[in-house]
Amino acid sequence: MVSCDKWKYTATSFKEKYYANPVDLVVQPWRGQHHVYGTFLIPNIYKNDGFFTLTLPGNKTYCGQLLNVSGFVIPGVYPKPENRIVRGYLNTRVALLLILQGHINDLNQPENWKLGYFESRKKYHPKSK
Fold first, then answer.
1. Its pTM surpasses 0.90
2. How far from 25 is each of 11, 46, 87, 89, 112, CA to CA, in Å?
3. 93 or 70: which carries more pLDDT confidence?
């Protein structure tokens, strides 16, 4: 699991930060590792935090790591050429614990999963003389 402390401080120097919810969710931890994830679409020109957040009722927040999967064919996900596909994985043990605590429906709600992204800094180009 990824520390959520980093999330609070990422991209604070940028004007605007945007958020995406997953376009697809898989919550099947009983199938083993790597079966709890959200698939996000973000514009190619933007950078992301490197992780996503899962916020459950009561503001309990968990974080997971991202993997760029733009080169893969993902059934049912058809991004525009200007977007890339990023998949956020939640630790399987964490997912199982949350399910045992009665949060299966919360895990299946896309609005509880959030990926922050922001425009990369523009490089300074001095005017030509």
1. no
2. 26, 22, 10, 10, 11
3. 93
